[in-house]
Amino acid sequence: MKKMLILVGVILALLFGWYGLKKVAFFWYMSHFTLPPVTIASSQAKAEKWQDYLPSVGSLTAINGVDVAPEVSGIVKDIRFSADQLVRKGDALVILDTSVEQAELKSNLAKLKLAQINQERNQKLFQRNAISQSVLDTTLAELQQAEAAVEVVQAHISQKTITAAFDGKVGIRLVDIGEYISPGKPMVTLQALNPLFVNFSLPEQYVSHLYLQQPIDVNTNGGKPIRGFISGINAKVDQTTRNILVQATIPNPTLALYPGMFAVIKVWLPAKKNVITLPQTAIAYSLHGDYVFVIKSEKSSKKTPSLLKAYRQYVTVGEQRNNKVAILKGVTADDSVVTAGQLKLQNGTRVLINNAVELSPP
């Protein structure tokens, strides 16, 4: 019986000893376990000089733009343009019926011919002293009246051919063949599209910063900005808004821009400022503030290699330009920050830099 108790005690001691050994080994393993590093892409903060600018918004307008309308009334006989067509100065756009004027012109031409015959006859008679000077003067006046009557009818006929006043593009026609139109009724819009004006306003305190031929950038659809130059500054400030009207000229060789389009404008100033910049993908946004992950090299001992770890750093973000962000506070030049792979990071996570692999931004 005594031997049995000793045997049971030994077995229990071995079991508890094995369990304790496993527990100690587990805790030792967990205390020495480290997660594998997270692969990320990185970039360095850079010190750059950014040129200051004045922001504004405005509208594009044609250098020459009119709603084509007739000077006289009449019935539309012919339309010689189609929508979105480029026309040259002097091209006929709309022809009004001139049948009445043509008949009147024939009558006046006949009267002019008769007046010329009478003038020539009386001139010969006057040279023979057969008529007085007053009779000759009367026939001369009648000739001049006949000539004027012909010119008046010809002018009326010319007014019924409506032409383009300048090179440009026509829009959608607003009249139909056979329609009676009155003087001043718009028939089509004609716009000169290259170059274009852009009109915008700036607060009066910036008047001293403006000058002719000052460079500007214009953006109409979020694409590549178009470089232009200030071509006019208004001579007075609006007393209601306290803004001054500014006009700039921009090229439009592809005719992709149209008058009336909304424009975002940057008026560039000569002064430049020093800024710390980061790629826009480096910024992570949260309710507690904007932050980046700064990469730091750490070494636990002289015998172990250096480890790269990422630490959260809150930053103050400034303006954005060309996928870059100005950092006002929180990062200094040459700091290495994570630009992709932030979703897998915690504060102090080990990282492995691989800029050759395209990773998803935050």
| Element-by-element helix/strand order | HEEEEEEHHEEEEEEEEEEEEEEE
CATH architecture level-2 label of the domain at 65-190: Beta Barrel
CATH class type of the domain at 65-190 = Mainly Beta
Q: Could you name the ranges where pLDDT drops below 50 across 5 or more consecutive residues?
A: none
Number of helices: 3
Q: What is the radius of gyration?
A: 43 Å
Using DSSP, what is the number of strands? 21
Shape: rod-shaped
User: Major sheet: size, sense and barrel closure?
Assistant: 6 strands, antiparallel, barrel
- Mean of the pLDDT scores? 83
CATH 4th-level superfamily of the domain at 65-190: RNA polymerase II/Efflux pump adaptor protein, barrel-sandwich hybrid domain
Describe this structure in words.
The protein is of the alpha+beta class and 362 residues long. Helices cover 24% and strands 39% of the residues. Among the domains are: 53-62 and 197-270, Elongation Factor Tu (Ef-tu), domain 3 (Beta Barrel); 65-190, OB fold (Dihydrolipoamide Acetyltransferase, E2P). The chain has helices at residues 2-32, 99-127, 133-159, and strands at residues 38-44, 46-62, 65-68, 74-79, 86-87, 92-96, 161-163, 168-170, 180-181, 188-191, 196-203, 215-219, 226-237, 243-250, 262-279, 291-298, 307-314, 316-321, 324-329, 336-340, 349-353.
